[in-house]
Design brief:
The complex is a heterodimer of chains A (487) and B (474). In chain A, α7 links the parallel β5 and β6. Chain A is globular, with a radius of gyration of 24 Å. Chain A has 487 residues and is of the alpha/beta class. Helix content of chain A is 44%, strand content 16%. With 474 residues, chain B is α/β, with parallel strands linked by helices. Chain B folds into three domains: 32 residues; 141 residues, Aspartate Aminotransferase, domain 1; 242 residues, Type I PLP-dependent aspartate aminotransferase-like (Major domain) (Aspartate Aminotransferase, domain 2, 3-Layer(aba) Sandwich). Chain B has a seven-stranded mixed sheet, with helices on both faces. Chain B has a four-stranded antiparallel sheet with strand order 13-14-17-16. A three-stranded mixed sheet of chain B has the order 3-4-15. The chains are: A alpha/beta (487), B alpha/beta (474). At the A-B interface, α2, β1, β2, α3 and α4 of A face α3, α4, α5, β5 and α6 of B. β1 of chain A pairs parallel with β5 of chain B. Bound molecules: pyridoxal-5'-phosphate (2 copies). One pyridoxal-5'-phosphate sits at the interface of chains B and A. Chain B: Keywords: Acyltransferase, Lipid metabolism, Pyridoxal phosphate, Sphingolipid metabolism, Transferase. Chain B: GO terms for molecular function: serine C-palmitoyltransferase activity.
Chain lengths: 487, 474
Amino acid sequence: MAVTIPYFAALTTYFSYGLLFVFGHLRDFFRGFTRSDSTPPEGYAPLCRDFEDFYTRRLYHRIQDCFNRPIASAPNAWIDVIERYSNDNNKTLHRTEKTRHCLNLGSYNYLGFAAQDEYCTPRVIETLDKFAISTCASRAEGGTTSVHEELEALIADFVGKPAALTYGMGFATNSTTLPSLMGKGCLIISDSLNHSSIVAGARGSGAKVTVFQHNIPEHLEEVLRQAIADGQPRTHRPWKKIMVIVEGIYSMEGELCRLKEIVAVTKKYKAYLYLDEAHSIGAIGKSGKGICELQGVDPANVDIMMGTFTKSFGSCGGYIAGSKELIQYLKSVSPGHLYATAMSPPAVQQVISALRLIRGEDGTDRGARKLAQVRENSNFFREELRKMGCEVLGDADSPVMPVMLYNPAKIPAFNRECFKRNVAVVTVAFPATPLLLSRARVCISAAHTREDLVRGLEVISEVSDMVKLKYMPPEEEVDAHLKEKRL
Amino acid sequence: MASKLVDSVVAFLDEPFDAVILGVKIDGHLLVEAVLIAAIVFLLMQKSYQPEKKPLTQNEIDQLCEEWVPESLHPPIREEMKIKDPVLESAAGPHTTVDGKEVLNLASANYLGLVGHPKIKEACEATLNKYGVGACGPRGFYGTIDVHLDLEAKIAQFLKTPDSILYSYGLATVASAIPAFCKRGDLLIADEGVHWGIQNGLYLSRSTVKLFKHNDMKHLESLLEEVMREDKRKKKALVRRFIVVEAIYQNSGQMTPLDEVVRLKEKYKFRVLVDESHSLGVLGKTGRGITEHFKIPVEKVDILTAAMGYALGSAGGFCTGSAKVVDHQRLSGAGYCFSASIPPYLASGSIAAIEIIEDNPDLLVNLRRNIITFRKCLSSIHELVVSGHEFSPVIFLQLKKPVSPSADAAILQKIADQMLEESVLVTVSRRSILDKCKLPVGLRLTVSAAHTEEELHAAAASLQRSVQSILQKQ
Ligand SMILES: Cc1ncc(COP(=O)(O)O)c(C=O)c1O
Ligand SMILES: Cc1ncc(COP(=O)(O)O)c(C=O)c1O
């Protein structure tokens, strides 16, 4: 889905950035006469080039109070945000003792496992007692414990693959696995909006990397056909292998992957498919099994299933699931397995317990209720935002929903005004999004009650009126479209 | 007929005719020249000759796609890939449980014996109860928990640096820090033995990379000299230039002569990045690492990184240095910006660990004594070569009579298996095919302050027996 930015918003957004750039450069120019403490010693190049930190100094610092807000509680439905102050025009911020109790619309706490849990926490602490917090060794060299093996069996079974391997960090799961599988003479075709960890892995692999238009299987097909026909650049030898990389839910867009069509294309052209389920595993699908379950795709059609434990499971780390041979191979080559400290055992236990709960193995229906709750909450919130006239991106069922802001001035305005009213929201701007497409991003959790959501909507509506975010006329049609989609 | 025509044309041109256009008299020559110029212009405007490019037809592409046969997703599984990793059934302390049997643990880099320390446990439990396990978001978006800030302040205070920045994974720390500062065109000179995390950072930065021979300062200096000569000759614009070393090399146990590195970096106007993963909490009287060991002020090291999964007995990593070094990474460290922050309980664990180190300098005394004792015991095993620096807590042993890398690895693995039979857990270092480090692998033993001298003597004796019995069978 392409965002079509309203003309007026586009014009004013360009104008605002133009103004910021002109004044930024003017200030840089005059700074040249007054300050010289940032010049490096003779013979050294500056540590950061001017154009690299222009953005930081002249744009980011003005609004940096909207980011990195520290909290003093678990990142659950409500959080205690620590208030900060600045004595130098926002260049540095200092903590105070004061906190503000805010509704949390920012954390990836889809199933509400971020906080203490009557089932998980005691088990986590038991594991802490038994295994301590670290093995001080890599998985391959004495850092594997029985909980690691238990989790790997469990997650493989959960996603529907024969075997799995875990890593201590989701980012590094991508950045160490991709170089293990792809290399010179291979081609990676990546969705244009894929996460930075995939970009790091693809670049680190040494394979040729191209992109296809975000979530458009037709374009993927075109790229694939052309790539196979052309072969490798210059030598025109056939590619050794081709891998297509997509995500289950695109976290900056709130969109679901068109997996069924993409699977059809990769099958037809014999490309391997790598699916990153960081945001979708546990969050969507009837029993939380992610995008495959939601769209009725057999996991056998996805060669490599990757996901993280930092979101729905409220822990840390990531996994790769695939065939037994694939996992065995990765165990012998992946730097994340051979060199990095193994995932911390209590964090492993958190995922095990959360998974058991989701699967109802604790003997209750709490897991099932959480899954139903996050879906219901998400769809309710999205619909209400649309009715209100905000421009919401993404698909039904996705617990992530961006609300378009466009103008740079609206980023701090929206963020600060919501914060004043005790709602913690996330605003995202360039370089995480294209320059024109700044947005706020709401993440819904099963831990939110209906009351919480209504409160959040009231505040967003009030602030949206204030900063003029209701770009869309509140229409009936939108609703109808949504209902149709859900059928 | 033709000659007649030529004649008449010549006659026509010779005929003086007096056309005057805008005051310029036009005669026959001028006309010919004008025609020639027009012809040249006409020719120039034509497209240059190109063989006509016919794009492949859809049918041809279909056929090519049909014919293309990809390689399999991964190479076939070979026998040596089937190593079964040991599985621990209890904490990775100085003793642990494997296959239901208590064993002496010489595999964990639990240098100070902090794994399972009651104070760390207590701190972690309190944090788990208050904050849950995960931070559920990156630092930018409500994933900053107060304990993260406390730990950053604690590290800076401990190492006497202005500020520090946390990463959720040791391996991603250097791999993110290097590309944050070095881009295409910049220059990195690194030791050839650096671990994969550093190699990955060097590669991702796209900078020019030169490698010097492992721990060879002469070679480093010759490279620096070469760079300086090149610079003088070409008068190139200044680029950012770094020397990248590890304090104690994970791949060899060697120690960088930091005094020499600092002298060279100042002479040749380079900056230096030092990875202190295996020296923090190991070197120096109070465990402050290699700068303390060499009595070099920490400001001389521009960027200092370390993983917390070794002596601190926790996980994750950090980078420390000037305020600028730290702040810049908060917006450009890929592994910092685009990954969930480290679980708060691990941050609490690290804070507690640093406090323990501050309060118990005798831990370092024990560690050093154990390292020296153990090295001495090991040196009496004549079939093996003990390598690495005398203060390195990670010790590599290679066969004195090597056969071939793969055969050696197989023999060493048999020795390790035999030792496990005798209730001592050791591992053979394994190297990924992605790893560019060419140093030999070996039997890898790690010493902890929590081991007793008797245990180390017994372990060395067990190694002696295993080596003899395995080598005899060869
Ligand atoms: C698609 C995707 N992959 C990987 C990651 C990295 O996961 P982690 O936060 O566990 O490092 C993220 C996190 O934001 C993500 O969105
Ligand atoms: C020097 C060094 N830094 C970082 C790392 C990675 O640390 P972690 O295992 O905590 O990811 C390693 C481990 O390979 C290392 O040796």
